[in-house]
Amino acid sequence: MIAEPVKEMPVVPGFPEKGSECPAATAQLLGRQAQLMEATGGAELSCSRCTFPFGLVVVIVGLVVTAVAYGFNSHGSVISVFGLVVLTLGFLLVISSAVCWRVRQCRKQAKRRESQTALMATRELFV
Questions:
Q1: Is 58 exposed, middle or buried (0-12, 13-18, 19+ CB in 10 A)?
Q2: Of 27, 90, 30, 24, whose CA–CA distance to 56 is shortest?
Q3: What HEC string does 82-94 produce?
Q4: Is 0.70 surpassed by the pTM of this model?
């Protein structure tokens, strides 16, 4: 009988390892985060890439529902309120995606500056 190799759980960046001294709630969170990473293949860190198109679709749906509701002069009805809520949620998704994208771009620029600084510092040593 062939024994299957034991798969190691991926380490979640920014969290202590599972064997470290942490409360039970944190250990449970780590287990769930590791399961999410395993299921998505690490795609949970690219949230802004999927929220932007989804947000655009939700904005379009909100516009259509609101236009249909106000087309029938049903101001203040359930469908018009629902359309406005969906429209607002769509705009919030698009805005949060843009903010996440901007933060990621700033982090990339900071990393580039750090690597350029390190490169220039090592260059001065050899000159």
A1: buried
A2: 90
A3: HHHHHHHHHHHHH
A4: no
In sign, the C-alpha dihedral spanning 86, 87, 88, 91 is positive
Q: Based on C-alpha coordinates, what's the Rg of the chain? A: 24
Rounded mean pLDDT for each run of 10 residues along the chain, 127 residues in total: 53 51 59 70 64 89 92 84 93 90 85 75 65
Residue-level pLDDT at 84: 92
* Rounded distance between C-alpha atoms, residue 125 and residue 14, angstroms: 33
- Distance, in Å, from the CA atom of 23 to the CA atom of 26, rounded to the nearest integer, reads 5
Q: What is the pLDDT of residue 52?
A: 85
End-to-end C-alpha distance for the chain, whole angstroms = 62
* Cα gap 78→31, rounded to integer Å: 41
CA angle 110, 112, 114 (to 5 degrees): 70
- Distance (Å, whole) CA 40 – CA 63: 31
User: Is the CB of residue 88 less than 8 Å from the CB of residue 62?
Assistant: yes
- Tokens at residue 37, please? 């990473």
